[in-house]
Design a protein that fits this description.
Nucleotidyltransferase, domain 5; five-stranded mixed β-sheet; 3 helices; elongated
Length: 134
């Protein structure tokens, strides 16, 4: 039973909360896609080369030499002397892999040569040096 004095209130849909939810979902997806980039090595300042080319290889083994001269393989710290055995085990698991040396541009040349020498001791290891385009 309704009172005759009460006016009829038209039905309304309030879309402000729906807009807030849509923006929250959109923000979530934007933030989550920022973390989908795959980092293969530790962050270093790569030297620049005008003739740099993109390599397409199914499996990459990343050897990083940071600005302090510390060496790591696939983000795991390792001594230079045991680098050859570690790379040998990774190359034996996948013969199509490419060993990429990610050396900071401020690293002493001798350190990079020592790392390259260890990689070249591994039979069947393909070697590449990471650079940035100018």
């Amino acid at each position: 039973m309704r009172l005759q004095d009460e006016p009829d209130i038209p039905a309304q849909i309030n879309i402000v909360p729906m807009i807030d939810v849509i923006f929250a979902i959109l923000t979530f997806f934007i933030m989550s896609t920022l973390f989908l980039t795959r980092s293969e090595g530790l962050p270093v300042n790569l030297p620049k080369a005008a003739t740099a080319k993109q390599q397409q290889v199914p499996t990459k083994i990343t050897v990083t030499v940071n600005d302090q001269g510390d060496v790591s393989v696939n983000r795991e710290p390792i001594a230079v002397d045991s680098l050859a055995s570690k790379i040998r085990s990774l190359v034996n698991a996948n013969p199509q892999s490419l060993v990429i040396i990610n050396a900071d541009e401020t690293v002493v040349h001798g350190k990079v040569v020592a790392v390259m020498d260890q990689v070249r001791q591994v039979e069947g290891a393909k070697l590449a040096i990471a650079t940035q385009r100018k």
